[in-house]
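Whiteboard transcription, Tuesday session. T.W. wrote the structure tokens on the left side:
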């Protein structure tokens, strides 16, 4: 087959991916946070000292929802770039980012391990940076869609570090209080 797809066919292919991946991202993010008991209602988290730049708790679900939509659209653009050299690597690196992303709530809220969560969010930032680089080689717009996500992940890294600095013994306190640990 030597015919090139029309712009309408390319758009239809992209939209099929968007219809699948955007809701999947939102669902996985929700399940990750819910399974770990994440959020301001978590009793352990409520006892932690928060940094002065900690935003309103209502900010997090809004920003993460927007981030997951952006990630879903960006990934859809790459997934629909069939035959592009480097597509598989870009998707694979992004999958590592998602694994670290979804693990963070489990590590932080479920295991009460702020230090390990900090390491995880650093991995999130590194794999997202690599994804942006790889996406830019295939679909520059997809890379730009990830730029606000990177800004948020870097802010989350700063927050995680500050929470750890303010609560250096929080993991030990969670252990002593009989915390439930989630493993995967």
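and on the right, the sequence the group agreed on:
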């Amino acid at each position: 087959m030597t015919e090139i797809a029309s712009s309408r066919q390319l758009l239809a292919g992209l939209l099929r991916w968007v219809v699948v991946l955007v809701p999947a991202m939102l669902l996985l993010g929700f399940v990750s946070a819910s399974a770990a008991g994440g959020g301001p209602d978590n009793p352990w988290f409520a006892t932690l000292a928060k940094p002065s730049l900690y935003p309103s708790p209502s900010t997090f679900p809004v920003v993460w929802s927007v981030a997951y939509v952006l990630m879903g659209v960006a990934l859809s653009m790459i997934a629909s770039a069939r035959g592009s050299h480097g597509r598989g690597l870009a998707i694979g690196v992004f999958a590592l980012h998602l694994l670290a992303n979804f693990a963070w709530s489990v590590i932080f809220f479920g295991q009460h391990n702020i230090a390990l969560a900090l390491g995880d969010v650093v991995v999130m930032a590194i794999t997202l940076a690599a994804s942006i680089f790889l996406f830019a080689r295939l679909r520059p717009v997809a890379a730009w869609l990830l730029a606000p996500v990177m800004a948020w992940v870097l802010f989350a890294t700063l927050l995680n570090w500050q929470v750890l600095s303010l609560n250096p013994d929080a993991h030990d306190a969670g252990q002593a209080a009989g915390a439930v640990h989630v493993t995967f």
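Someone added at the bottom: The longest helix spans residues 7-35.
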